[in-house]
Amino acid sequence: MPIALDFLKQQPEINLRLTLADRRVSLVDEQVDVALGIGHLADSALIAIRVGSVRRVLCASPDYLAERGVPRQPDDLAAHDGISFQGFATAPEWRYRRDSAAFAVDPRPKLAVNTTEAAIQAALAGVGIIRVLSYQVSEQLSSGQLQELLPEFAPEPLPVNLIHAPAMPLPLKVRSFLDWTAPRLRTRLAA
């Protein structure tokens, strides 16, 4: 959002419609010029501009960890309460890496919510462990409100791309937005 707001200040003649959704969108059907996609891209005719990557992180509040203990390996999660985010049609497994092999261990489902914000609030309140993307809890991790767990077992980071439909020539407003946004996202995602 901050990048989009800065873009509008610099380009006052351009109007922007920003839709925030945790789902795949059809650029053509939904009349979207540019999408920010997190995850591996399916083969398609769409154009992708790589701007960085994000990590999947497990975290919990210091209060929860003081009461329940800090998991030292993924198998320990079976004895912990989890907060699941079910914003997609199917909730992804809590996957980890051990000696290059992927495996899954889920904490006990204490609470299921349908927004990331609700999951983060529940974790801050000490309800259990959440798995979210690194940018979603960067402030809470930096401030110590949440503590990252098991980073050495985390799966590979997910790519982040700006995606647009092929067009010759690309509309000037879309080119302007891409040129403005891509370097700023790269800087932000590198932090």
Q: Major beta sheet, specifics?
A: 5 strands, mixed
- Quaternary state reads single chain
The CATH H-level homologous superfamily of the largest domain? Periplasmic binding protein-like II
Count of helical stretches: 5
User: Radius of gyration, Cα only, in angstroms?
Assistant: 19 Å
Approximate shape: elongated
Query: How much strand content do the residues show?
Result: 25-35%
Helix content: 25-40%
CATH topology heading of the largest domain: D-Maltodextrin-Binding Protein, domain 2
Number of strands: 10
Indicate the CATH class of the largest domain: Alpha Beta
What pattern of helices and strands is seen along the backbone?
HEEEHEEEEHEHEEH
Termini separation comes to: 17 Å
Structural domains: how many? 2
Q: Spans with pLDDT under 50 lasting ≥5 residues? A: 88-92
Look at the structure and give the mean pLDDT.
87
Main structural class? alpha+beta
CATH hierarchy: architecture of the largest domain: 3-Layer(aba) Sandwich
Please state how the strands of the largest beta sheet are arranged side by side.
Answer: 7-4-8-3-9
What are the defining features of this structure?
D-Maltodextrin-Binding Protein, domain 2; 2 domains; 26% helix; 5 helices; 5-stranded mixed beta sheet; 191 residues; alpha+beta; 3-stranded antiparallel beta sheet
